[in-house]
Amino acid sequence: MSNDFQDLLIWQKSHELSILIYGFTKHLPREELFGITSQIRRSAISVENNIAEGFGRRTKKDFANFLYMALGSLYETRSMLRVCHELEYISKELYHESDGKYVILSYMLKKFISSLESNFAHRT
């Protein structure tokens, strides 16, 4: 494994999603600053932060637990993206681009979690 969480493809993909979300939330209605804008930003940044924090933990089991938290935040982000789309705060194209990033990252996180769990399951 790498020596830096930033080398992990799952972190890089989660960071891309965060940057995309921070970019379009600058243009959401002002009245959403403490609502949707704040919530979707927190959930998106939580994905990459949980990956980074888990990377720094001592065991693969701890890392897997943080990846589960990242996955939960990713689901929350997807839910918020749908709200933004249905309220017509973002275009159909931007929604599909964001959702595509979600699908890829969700798959990658689940596979990575599985590999970590099978690794520490074989040790017991």
Q: How much helix is in the residues?
A: over 70%
Major sheet size, sense and barrel closure: none
Instruction: Please report the number of helical segments.
Output: 4
Q: What is the β-strand count? A: 0
Please indicate the count of domains. 1
Principal-axis shape: elongated
Which structural class should the secondary elements be placed in?
mainly alpha
The end-to-end span amounts to: 21 Å
Radius of gyration: 15 Å
The overall average pLDDT, rounded, is: 94
CATH structural fold name: de novo design (two linked rop proteins)
> H/E order of the elements?
HHHH
Q: What is the C-level CATH assignment?
A: Mainly Alpha
Question: How much of the polypeptide forms β-strand, as a percent range?
Answer: under 5%
Low-confidence stretches: none
Fold topology:
Blueprint: H1 9-25, H2 33-55, H3 60-86, H4 92-121
Helix pairs in contact: 1-2, 1-4, 2-3, 3-4
What does this structure look like?
- The protein has 124 residues and is an all-alpha fold.
- The chain has a single domain (5-121), classed as Up-down Bundle (de novo design (two linked rop proteins)), CATH 1.20.1440.60.
- The protein has 4 helices and no strands.
- Helix 1 (9-25) runs antiparallel to helix 2, helix 2 runs antiparallel to helix 3 (60-86) and helix 3 packs antiparallel against helix 4 (92-121).
- It is elongated, with a radius of gyration of 15 Å.
- The mean pLDDT is 94.
